[in-house]
Write a structure and sequence with these properties.
single chain; about 130 residues; alpha/beta; four-stranded mixed beta sheet; 8 strands; globular
Length: about 130
C-alpha cells in the first residue's frame, strides 16, 4: 500500500494569468504560491495545482466541486461576477432557471450547478443539505 504523506490534484489551463484571476479573484480561493504553476489552497484543507499547458484540452467532467451552504446565494454571486452556468440535456431532471439541478427536494442527491473556468474545465457548486 502507498503511504502518501500528503496529496493534491492538478489540472492544466491555457493561461495561468487568466486562471489566477478566475480562481483567486472570482472564486475567492487562496493562492499559496506560484512556483512552476499556481498552488491553490482549497476550503477544508485540500490543494489544487494549476499548470499552463500549450495543448490543453478541457476536462469533459467536473474537476472541482465547491460545496456551499446556500447554492442560490452562491449562484447569484457568481452570475454577478460574469459566470455563466451550464445546462445539460442528459440529467435525471431539468435544471431550474438558475441552472441548478435540484436533487435535495426529491431525495436524489445534492443541488448542483455547473460552470467553466477560462480554460473550459468544468467546476460545480454543490449544496449537500
Amino acid at each position: 500500500m502507498v503511504k502518501a504523506i500528503t496529496s493534491f490534484s492538478g489540472i492544466s489551463v491555457t493561461d495561468s494569468i487568466k486562471a489566477k484571476e478566475f480562481y483567486v479573484g472570482t472564486l475567492g480561493l487562496k493562492l499559496e504560491n506560484e512556483e512552476m504553476g499556481l498552488h491553490i489552497l482549497l476550503p477544508g484543507g485540500g490543494r489544487l495545482f494549476l499548470y499552463e499547458k500549450y495543448d490543453h484540452q478541457p476536462a469533459t467532467f467536473t474537476i472541482l466541486n465547491l460545496v456551499v451552504s446556500n447554492i442560490d446565494e452562491a449562484v447569484d454571486d457568481l452570475v454577478s461576477r460574469g459566470i455563466k452556468f451550464e445546462r445539460y440535456d442528459n440529467m435525471p431532471s431539468a435544471q431550474d432557471d438558475k441552472g441548478v439541478l435540484r436533487g435535495l427536494s426529491v431525495n436524489q442527491g445534492p443541488d448542483i450547478a455547473w460552470f467553466k473556468d477560462p480554460s473550459g474545465n468544468i467546476l460545480s457548486l454543490l449544496q449537500e443539505k
